[in-house]
């Protein structure tokens, strides 16, 4: 029996495929807003949700998503309205999330082995019910990320401009934060809560090494995310290691390759580009034609009485409504 015939591997690969699509999709907006670590903060908060589910006997995925959404909303509100900056808001919830999770796990009587399956992912723990939740949430994330792409991009690019055009900036920012929380829950079983932020950021950073437009970056990042997830799950099965770490290491390897390739491509383009003085830049007018006056017996001088105008490295003389300038053995008209 091959690994693709094993039911738990089929569920893990489907979950990995959806995680590889949804995490970079919402991560593109987070990177654009310079909130790359928001996914990390939400992952810490989701630990408290998982621990709460284990303590109360409720499905950990359900409690994790509820607590993660509440935490993401708090981060956004503190950043937007509070006196604390975005990084301070993230730090506060980092510490609160991990402390609450460890405390509740201890009260639930669960060991470190149980907690590790949520922190670093596990192939064998993706149950059929987990897969249904992952499919449903991933579809919601992708529909929002693609369907509201223009509005979300406008808010991420320039909030003031988006507000002037009539967009509800606060609501869209909250939507991005909530979708990030949902994505964390989607990736919880495959990548793990502590490494999910890497899958949101690293594929996007990798795509930016090779692409220029936002749309191309979005699509390339999703492709890289899918490759890292599927290859990482297969590799972790053969190596018998946690899938989360394998997926992130593969994503980082892709970044190194893309960074080197991107640098070589930029150097090649710069060497093939024409020199600045060989061809005028687009939109910049070229030099005016050199016009030689036909006959000009009068020789201008400092004492000839014609008004003088300083012009770069020479002097022009106002003469019958135009300018004359000495050029070698003749006079030019300007």
UniProtKB/TrEMBL annotation:
Gene3D superfamilies: ABC transporter involved in vitamin B12 uptake, BtuC. Its main location: membrane. CDD domains: TM_ABC_iron-siderophores_like. The chain crosses the membrane at residues 12-30, 90-111, 131-155, 167-187, 193-211, 218-239, 245-265. The keyword Isomerase does not apply. Coiled coil: none annotated. It comes from the Bacteria. Belongs to the ABC-3 integral membrane protein family. This is ABC-3 protein. It comes from Kribbella flavida (strain DSM 17836 / JCM 10339 / NBRC 14399).
């Amino acid at each position: 029996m091959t690994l693709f015939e094993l039911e738990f591997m089929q569920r893990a690969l489907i979950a990995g495929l959806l995680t590889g699509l949804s995490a970079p999709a919402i991560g593109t907006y987070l990177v654009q807003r310079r909130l790359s670590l928001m996914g990390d903060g939400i992952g810490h908060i989701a630990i408290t949700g998982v621990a709460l589910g284990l303590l109360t006997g409720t499905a950990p995925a359900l409690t994790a998503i509820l607590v993660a959404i509440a935490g993401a909303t708090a981060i956004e509100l503190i950043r937007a309205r509070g006196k604390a900056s975005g990084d301070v808001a993230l730090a506060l919830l980092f510490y609160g999330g991990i402390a609450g999770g460890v405390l509740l796990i201890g009260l639930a009587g669960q060991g470190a082995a149980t907690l590790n399956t949520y922190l670093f992912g596990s192939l064998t723990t993706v149950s059929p019910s987990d897969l249904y939740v992952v499919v449903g949430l991933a579809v919601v994330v992708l529909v929002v990320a693609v369907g509201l792409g223009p509005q979300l991009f406008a808010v991420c690019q320039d909030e003031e401009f988006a507000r002037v055009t009539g967009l509800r900036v606060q609501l869209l920012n909250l939507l991005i934060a909530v979708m990030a929380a949902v994505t964390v829950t989607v990736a919880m079983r495959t990548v793990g809560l502590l490494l999910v932020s890497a899958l949101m950021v690293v594929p996007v950073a990798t795509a930016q090494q090779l692409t220029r437009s936002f749309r191309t970056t979005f699509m390339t990042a999703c492709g890289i995310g899918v490759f890292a997830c599927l290859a990482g799950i297969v590799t972790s099965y053969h190596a018998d290691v946690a899938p989360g770490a394998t997926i992130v290491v593969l994503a980082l390897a892709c970044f190194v390759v893309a960074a080197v390739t991107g640098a070589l491509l930029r150097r090649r383009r710069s060497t093939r580009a024409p020199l600045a003085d060989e061809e005028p830049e687009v939109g910049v007018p070229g030099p005016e034609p050199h016009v030689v006056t036909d006959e000009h017996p009068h020789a201008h001088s400092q004492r000839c009485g014609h008004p003088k105008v300083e012009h770069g490295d020479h002097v022009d003389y106002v003469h019958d409504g135009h300018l004359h300038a000495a050029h070698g053995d003749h006079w030019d008209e300007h």
